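User: Before I run my own analysis I want an independent prediction to cross-check against. Here's the chain; please return only the structure tokens and, at the end, one sentence I can use as a sanity check.
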Amino acid sequence: MRSIQLGRREFITLLGGATIAWPLPVHGQKSGRVARVGVLSPFFPSFGASPAYDAFSQTMRELGWIEGQNIALEYRWAEGRADRLPALAAELIRLKPDLFFSAWGTPAALAAKNASSTTPIVFAGVGDAIGVGLVKSLSQPGANITGSTFITEETIGKQLDLLRQTVSALSRVGVLINPKNPVYGPVLKATQVPAQEMNLHLQVLGVENANDFEPALDAASKGGIGGLIVLRDPVFIINTSRLVELAAKYRLPTLYGLSHFAFAGGLMSYGPNLRDMYRRAAFVVDKILAGAQPSDVPVEQATRFELVINSKTAKALGLEVPPTLLVRADEVIE
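Assistant: Structure tokens:
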């Protein structure tokens, strides 16, 4: 466990920022024609392609892929609007890239898959790639798509347990989702079993944009919800500060699926180590650009998960985090 002092924490530096000055090892033969890669992101250019995208960019450089020398990246940004993803994916495919990289989330990956059955596609930041129909299996994805994923259904059961251990006499839990994100169908179905085992009643709160946040949390507070779980969605990530502020305003102990929420003042977070997932995705891209077929490249599954606890927020909410959780945490923000 590491304790840190929380000051101002910025989002990670993304590709296109400062250039790394030291020499990088070259993996395999990268000379010859420039590889063209289309990158689809649900975020804004100012935000970057995704959380932890810098880990993907750094690993690509370490593997010998240097932008402007042997690889060209063409970006398309949905700017928080999932309905724009299909058209942007089709636009990238028309550029005839050597590879299509879906930089974050299930909706973008599905848009990529629907746009082409031949262009190699690699996805990252996707929950339950099998359950949403992206691939047939992790070991043999089939067709023209592969990438890195994690099993959302397993993760949310652990999130419920962490929240139950932190909030005494917890009985009602709100689950904040974007109903337009298809990943939450199998997730919510699988959540019922662990919730029943823990004697927790779940209430789904649907939020599609920032204007929905306050009415949803107000209803949760008035409805007797004692704790909240915020799942991963671009709408939530783009509006991190607003969500954290409202959780504090309504005094709702909240567990998030990404660590940057905890660093922004959220109570706690539990989820896959995104930097590790994006490093893995870079190796997948490298293999395919070197000639491998996506159907033959197994989907990389997240193996590292991290728990971050904000002790300062816990004290503000009048909560005493169990010592067993503090010891278990990867980081504790004092």
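Sanity check: The chain has two domains: 2-150+274-303, 152-271+306-333.
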